[in-house]
């Protein structure tokens, strides 16, 4: 055994995992945007209100990063994760505004062992974040690589 | 006129834009990972070497965020950008390691005016980051929304 709760074998197709919740503050939105995505609607409440986003809104990449942190805390840091080859798609469906509370769910779509590296398994997941009004704001489909228990032992 | 150099009309299908370069330090990799993606290979040189990534490697989301900053500095902050509905795909093709210098190119794949909001145009772009060895490390396809000059005036 690996000591990790989540290895390749532990993901079940069709299962859904609650990855908890995260409230985003105006200060966090502005801090991320200042470094990586300094568009006015991510830096200033008035500019956000004047934009089609309707308020001070998180950079889409900030939403991705917050999602990743939720995933880490929920199970990824207690897993045999070996990273990811990429993302099938991201949908930023509605603005994430200062003060919003996001709740996340991950659904396991499919799994398969790598042919070239049998110690690695590929898990394809669809993830969703919903805000405090029950509106779906973010959807992501991606594939993660996880060692088997035996390979990680 | 808007005062912005880049409105919907200014993007030309097939054109390629150089978005400059960015060298990523170990400290930046660890800082981003500590907040958003605290997997061992993004926090510690030895853990990175022991992983299939082969060294202290940037979180894939950090690479996305660095790309976004390059895009902002190259033209997005001098544009009529209204954000993006999402990402068609992201490919993390090779690890981005501490000390790597990334150079980026954006190619305009297609453009169309929104039917429901004619003041908005949708620009679909494919972007690529290449490291100092000429290896393609990152590819992204996404759609951005830009106001026309007239709408932004």
From TrEMBL, chains A, B:
Pfam family, one: MaoC_dehydratas
Name used for this protein in its record: MaoC-like domain-containing protein
Residue span, MaoC-like domain: 21-115
Organism domain of life: Bacteria
CDD domains, alphabetized: YdeM
